Amino acid sequence: MTKEKDIHHQDSICINESQIQHRWYHNLKYLIVGILFGIVFVKAEIISWFRIQEMFRLQSFHMYGVIGSAVFTGMISVWLIKKFKIKTVYGEPISIAAKTFNKGQIYGGLIFGFGWAITGACPGPLFAQIGTGTFAVVITLLSAVLGTWVYGYFRDQLPH
Questions:
Q1: TM segments (predicted)?
Q2: Which domain covers residue 21, as residue numbers?
Q3: Is residue 54 within 8 Å of 63, Cβ to Cβ?
Q4: CB half-sphere exposure, 129, CA atoms < 13 A
Q5: Do 39 and 129 meet the contact criterion of CB atoms below 8 Å apart?
Q6: What local confidence, expressed as pLDDT, does residue 8 receive?
Q7: pLDDT (tens digit, 9 = 90+) per residue, 101-126?
Q8: How far apart are CA 63 and CA 91, in angstroms?
């Protein structure tokens, strides 16, 4: 695959994206699941700045256990989807594209990790943290949005 096709692939729509059009209220289920997911994050202390600092200081296994169980669940889920050729709820086939390693993933992972260690937040829990009243995290959210925009702007010049 050429570099040009690889970049084009990043701009394309999700290959599993449904062509079915739904009414606006069809998406309320995602809002409900998101709220429930946020509650689980709060109760499990995944959004706790102190828990995240314990993880980066290697003082506690709590966050490593949560992340490890999520990775294990994801591995089993992908294996089951591939083995049994599971389809979406609308009967559309699920296709998982092969991933190739590149050095940009190292740089991105380091930047992500440093940001996570400094702010005590990664993108998922940001909204749950704001929902619990930690409004200083709004700065982290705005910084994440700005960082995403900067990446998109300079993507062609960055190592991929």
A1: 30-50, 62-81, 106-128, 134-154
A2: 3-157
A3: yes
A4: 22
A5: no
A6: 44
A7: 888 889 889 988 898 888 888 887 88
A8: 36
